[in-house]
Amino acid sequence: MRTKRDFEQLFVAETSTRLFLSRGINEVTIKDIASKTNIGEATIYRHYETKGNLILLSANYLANKVLKEKFKQGDFPSGLEGIRSFYQTFLDIYLEKPEYFRFVKELDAYLLNENPSLSQTYEDVLDHFKDSYLSYYEQGLLDGSIIKQEDIETYYFATTRSLMEIIKKFAGKDLLNQDSHTNKKLQIQSLIDAYIAKLTAR
Fold first, then answer.
1. Core vs surface per residue 99-134: b (16+ CB within 10 A) or e
2. Alpha helices in 41-147 (DSSP H)
3. How do the pLDDT tens digits run along the chain, 202 residues long?
4. Which residues of 47-60 are buried (b: 16+ CB within 10 A; e: fewer)?
5. Which of the listed CATH numbers 3.30.450, 2.60.120, 3.40.50, 1.10.357 matches domain 60-199?
């Protein structure tokens, strides 16, 4: 049974996440979160201690309440189609909610520069979706749609992280002139197609 504290934490997580997504991590203060939640600033400090803990709370909220639903394991005619859908979800989220990837980009910078001690917790958040991917892989080996890889876990991390990096770059402001003149959706799709081609049994 959920307690009053559980509901308060969920409310704080939802509110903090909205603020971080709309304004950016660096622009949001604990005072802002206290004001939006109508919870005393001293109470926020007592329960969460630091802004870093509130950022991680938001990262976990996005992973568990938003991304976990989007990456939910489904039924597909083949394991290869399951993995294709898995990768495609990254592109779908980018097109629908690019601010999610801007948040992740800012979170990376925050952890690197401000609070590297929280990085392990963040790694745990990113590891949420591996089991679904590996399940599709095993299905693909059985149904013959996927060719066996030397180290599928390494392939999972290499492909998902590289996909995340290019999407985080595209979700931010264009740094190079060519960025504003290229089809970002097509570039992401080309990367996904290359990942799938490497897995496809001939």
1. ebbbbbbbbeebbeeebeebeeebeebbeebeebbe
2. 41-48, 51-61, 68-70, 79-96, 98-113, 119-126, 130-143
3. 678 777 888 999 999 999 999 999 999 999 999 999 999 999 999 999 989 899 989 988 888 877 777 777 789 999 999 999 999 999 999 999 899 999 988 888 887 787 666 555 556 655 668 888 999 999 999 999 999 999 999 999 999 989 999 999 998 765 555 555 579 999 999 999 999 999 999 7
4. ebeebbebbbbbbb
5. 1.10.357
6: exposed, middle or buried (C-beta count within 10 Å: 0-12, 13-18, 19+)? exposed
Single-letter residue type at 86: F
Residue matched to tokens 């992280």: 161
What phi and psi values does residue 117 have, to the nearest 5 degrees?
A: -65, -20
Phi/psi for 34 (5° steps) reads -60, -40
Sequence spans of domains, the chain: 60-199
